[in-house]
Amino acid sequence: MPLQHSVGLCAAMVSSGEDNQTERPRCRSLWCQIRSLAPPLIVEAGRRETAGPAVVPELAVSDIQASLSFWCDLLGFEVSYDRPEARFAYLVRGPLQAMLCERNGRREPSEMQHPFGRGINLQMTVGDIDPILKALHAADWPLYEQPGSAWYRVGDQELGQREFLVQDPDGYLIRFAEDLGTRPPSRS
After folding, report:
1. DSSP 38
2. 173 - beta bridge partners?
3. What is the pLDDT of residues 165-178, one digit of tens each?
4. Per the domain annotation, does 30 fall within a domain?
C-alpha cells in the first residue's frame, strides 16, 4: 500500500487506476493539479542519465507521514512515486523536486539532532509565494523569516526576489522565492 499523507489541502486522494497491481495516491486538490512523473531517462552514448535537475536533495526525516503532510498539504508538492517499504517518497511541484526518506541509520555520517540540515537552506523558486503563505497561515505554521524583498548582485546587475523562510517538521530550512526581475546595482 502506498504512503498516504494526512488530510488537509491534499485530502482528495484517489487510486490512479493506471495499473491494477499497485495503487499510487493522486491528489485532485488545487495544489496538486500538476502532472508528476519521475524524471525521464536519457540514454546517450551508453550512459544512462535522467533529464531534469542535476541535484535533487534527499532529506532524512523523523516521520514520513508528518513530512508528507507538510510538503504536500502546505507546500503544494505531490508524490511522484514512493517506496512504502523503505519509507521513501519522491516529491515534485512543477520543476521542483525533493526526496524524503524516514531515518533508518543509513547515510548518517554523524548523530542526527534536531533541527536537521544545519547550515543549509534550500531555495525553491515558484511563480507566486502567496498561495504557500496562505496555506501555512491557515495551518498556523510559523515562519522562520517573514516575506520580504531581497536583491542580490550578479555581475553588473541585481536580481530581485520576494522570499520567506520556513522550517519543515524536522527543522530543514526552506526558502521560497518569486522573481522580481533585475535592476541596476544600488550604490550602497
Report:
1. P
2. 121, 167
3. 999 999 999 999 99
4. yes
Domain for residue 119, yes or no?
yes
Q: What's the number of domains the chain is made of? A: 1
65 pLDDT band, cuts 50/70/90, is: very high
Range of the domain at 25: 13-36+53-106+115-183
- In the block, cell 542580490 appears at 152
- Under the banding of pLDDT at 50, 70 and 90, the label for residue 113 is confident
Residues contacting residue 173 through CB under 8 Å, at least 6 positions apart? 115, 117, 120, 121, 122, 144, 165, 166, 167
User: DSSP assignment of 42-65, as one string?
Assistant: EEETTEEEESS-S---EEEES-HH
Q: Which of 137, 13, 129, 123 is nearest to 68 (CA)?
A: 13
Assigned domain for 170 exists: yes
Report yes or no: 84 and 25 within 8 Å, Cβ to Cβ: no
What pTM was computed for the model? 0.68
Contact 139, 8 (CB under 8 A): yes
pLDDT tens sequence across 37-49? 334 444 445 554 5
Q: Do 100 and 71 contact (CB within 8 A), yes or no? A: yes
* Eight-class DSSP state of 185: P
